[in-house]
Specification:
By secondary structure, the protein is mainly alpha-helical. It has one domain. The two termini are 16 Å apart.
């Protein structure tokens, strides 16, 4: 997997805005899970992906965790989505959970994560994590639908 593709995937997982990018893996759900549980699991999955790919995705994982915690609470995610995200074993499972968000919840995730990663790819760390061609957060697939 190329560095650009891995960074793009890492961004998608951190944002969990990969609706429309494919992926159908079944996922576990964590009954009685909280927004904090979902956020912590998202961070864990991103860190594991980075380790698997030999990349440090700590900043992305932290921004993803903080975004999950903030948007989950503020936007009133359903217990189904929270449990899904808290029990997701990998990026495909997180993607399946995110596909359950409303369009408004999804957009709030995009906007919040973009701000946490430096606006519209405004800082170097965010630029390194951007999909090929510097696609904005609104296109987590980097044009690779």
């Amino acid at each position: 997997m190329t560095k650009t593709k891995t960074a793009s995937l890492g961004l998608a997982f951190a944002l969990a805005v990969v609706a429309g990018c494919g992926g159908t893996q079944k996922h576990a759900t964590a009954k009685g899970a909280t927004c904090a549980d979902a956020a912590a699991n998202n961070e864990k999955v991103i860190i594991a992906l980075g380790a698997q790919q030999g990349q440090d995705m700590t900043a992305m994982a932290t921004a993803g965790r903080d975004t999950y915690a903030e948007r989950c609470a503020a936007d009133g995610w359903s217990s189904e989505i929270i449990g899904c995200a808290a029990g997701a074993a990998d990026a495909d499972a997180i993607q399946a959970c995110v596909e359950k968000l409303t369009p408004e919840q999804h957009q709030a995730m995009v906007d919040t994560f973009g701000a946490k990663m430096g606006g519209a790819w405004g800082n170097e760390e965010a630029k390194e994590s951007a999909p090929a061609g510097g696609a904005p957060p609104g296109d987590p697939c980097g044009g690779d639908e």
